[in-house]
Amino acid sequence: MSEIHGLAVHAAGAQLLPFKYEPGDLKPDEVEVKISHCGVCHSDVHLINNDWGMSRFPFIPGHEIVGTVVGTGSDVKNLKAGVRVGIGWQADSCGVCEWCRQGDEHLCAKSQPTCVGRHGGYADRIRVNSRFAIPVPEVLDSENVAPLLCGGITVYSPLRNHDVRPSSRVGVIGIGGLGHIGLQFARAFGAEVTAFSSSKDKEDEAKAMGAHHFVNTRDTGALRKVAGSFDFLLSTVSADQDWQGYVNALRPKGTLCVVGVPPSAIALQAFPLIGGQRAVCGSPTGSPRDLHEMLDVAARHNVKAITERFAMAKANDAVAKVKKSQVRYRAVLAN
Ligand code: NAP
Ligand code: ZN
Question: What distance in angstroms lies between residue 41's CA and the mean position of ligand 2's atoms?
């Protein structure tokens, strides 16, 4: 097959530049996908800046991909040319370890992220292991579904795996790309939902997305007023927060789950954790099994990303706007 064309970053913090690579022979377990849309996740910004020290330059970012299968390797039985698929953070795993065998491929020690050590979705095509190309239900629009492939699964998995239900009081912290989908899924799970935001002008939109309540985190004493109120708090913020205030906002047996990646360590007092039997945890994107289920739930409960579309060639503009927290609520690049 021919060269793949995209936009790559060559050094930490640099602009994206036109880039091409020769993908070689299609491996037996791979599919090749012609990309129509790719979301701009804040993790792409972290990778572009090498905030996590794991970026391998040059690389093409992008891991919220929707496109059409155009080629299948000789061993691929689950997909054929013409099928519309979504691809998220993960492009491959070993397939044989205990985690892969039980359907938790996202926990595989040999997991291959889509755009770390590989080239991602700010491009015309991509290849991944066919297990990580998930068919997209027909009713979902490609532009609105692309952000679900990372942003959506990252909020869906913890809500599901921590057993959020109609009796649950849930708070979503940070109403950006992940958070605005988190409000919708938390509502679909039947919970009483609170949006925590540092942008008071997001209140009306947050309520339209499913929040019953809105807390402006810039108000002094805002967290003290909701002490002891929540069963499950999901933080999607990439900045340091009043973590102790959020732990104190949990009810007994409540959980604070961190999916956003703040720059500093999270320091907490032991007694509020011990006394109320509270927990703090993290959660990575999610397994292919959860991706299939999440897309199905999104289709049936009308969960979709609110997007701002950019032409693929304008990816630098999209990244700049994400860096400034000016996108409402997810930038999506379109080919
Ligand atoms: P985003 O679209 O930029 O949204 C982040 C939101 O956090 C902002 O909209 C803002 O919401 C809030 N925020 C509050 N204070 C902020 C500050 N000082 N700087 C920036 N934002 C601030 O980002 P995203 O794509 O949702 O990603 C959020 C985080 O999740 C990133 O760290 C990303 O790397 C991480 N992530 C993790 C996983 C995982 O597997 N765990 C997967 C995907 C992404 P308000 O205006 O409402 O305050
Ligand atoms: Zn992401």
Answer: 5
